[in-house]
Amino acid sequence: MIRAKIEIEGVVDKPDVVGAIFGQTEGLLGEDLDLRELQRTGRVGRIQIAVKSEGGMSKGEIVIPVSLNKTATAMLAASLETVDRVGPCTAKVTLEKLEDIRGAKRRRVVSRAISILKGWEEEIAPGTEEITSAVTAGKKKTVAKFGPENLPAGPELTESDEIIIVEGRADVINLMKSGIENTVAVEGTHVPKSVSELTRKSGKTIVAFLDGDRGGDLILRELMQVAKVDYIARAPEGKEVEELARPELLKALQTKIPAEQALALVSDSKAAAPPKKRSFFRRSPRPPRKEESRKEEVHRTEEKKVEPPKAPPRPNRGHQRAVPQVDQVFLAKIPQIKESFKAVLFNKNREVLVECGVADLAKTLESQSSVDAVVFDGVVTQRLVDMAATKQMRLIIGAAVADIESKPASLQIATFGDFEH
56: Cβ–Cβ under 8 A, 6 or more apart, which residues? Predict the structure, then answer.
């Protein structure tokens, strides 16, 4: 909530102040922070103004409810102070405070909770452990069965809007301990027919939560062939879902990425890759044997005799990708987001529009009207290229590139590895 006071040398009414605010801030911060546009998209609420006139002077308060990040809120608040006239009268706007409504509500909740606790009689006020035990005993649930194969499943599988596919019964049990009960296990590397049909006919969001090992790779590849999967979450490298603690489980699910990107990254890890190639599973390479080291040394010596091309081409079904000349603004973002599964969207002035997770990139792109470039820690796919074409974007930089069948001539594509020296 932005709160400011206004002082006007003259007698004015509320509509005059409203008109001055909209008129004098229009275009000041660009299209994305224009007050009318922010109100149209629901990120700024109705502007509340109270004005009183006395002795030929008018004074009042301006209150603007906003739903923006801290930086955007501060910029919007600062723009109010540029209003210096209301109609023919000189005016001065002074910011009083930025109030976090959620913080105020939290304080009221804490205060009220303390008063409730004090009002309880000691003999009927159980401790935290007693409450937890009672709740756990009252809601204790067992592993359910799904389909003709009697697959292990969470009790909330059919009621939830999202389904989490895991590898085995132990994974289902571990997720249930953390309160996640919308699960079903495939029980091996062969995906049962009932699970395949569930993903295609249920109309729900499907997330595959797989171990960070070779078995997880195999199940991922089969799932993408026989089922409809929206997102992929992975346990940390070398760990299994059944052994993860609650914080690790939640973090893995929160950093899920679109299934097509996960599959492309797995495919990249199987193909020959240049040095420093990024892998979705963070695998550390096996130390080479002495014989292999000697072969590599000979190979490097032979390579020195031939001047390498300026940018190694990447085969993309019939055409090669040249490395574009990229502004330093974009290159500076690469080390900041690498290994983070984040995306940064820029406008034509090379200014950051918004940052988001890779899993939300497509949805964020659809909601933005002035995106010119994207730098993100994920795989450049044909679907992303098609979206970029509709937005008339000029540049995409990703961690890797999948097979691209077509792209507009005006769109440049590069990878993190293209700029590593």
Answer: 9, 10, 11
pLDDT tier for residue 166 given thresholds of 50, 70 and 90: very high
| Residue for token pair 């995906």 | 191
Alpha carbon 233 to its chain's center? 13
What is the pLDDT, as a whole number, of residue 321? 60
Task: Let me know how long the chain is.
Answer: 421
| pTM score of the predicted model | 0.40
State the Cα–Cα distance between residues 267 and 368, nearest whole angstrom.
31
Contact 145, 185 (CB under 8 A): no
Domains of the chain: 2-101 (3.30.70), 144-255 (3.40.1360.10), 328-419 (3.40.140.20)
With b for 16 or more beta-carbon neighbours within 10 A and e for fewer, the 324-338 pattern comes to: eebeeebeebbeebe
Instruction: Please write the tens of the pLDDT for every residue from 193-203.
Output: 899 899 988 88
User: d(Cα 370, Cα 412) in Å, to the nearest integer?
Assistant: 17
SS3 for 109?
helix
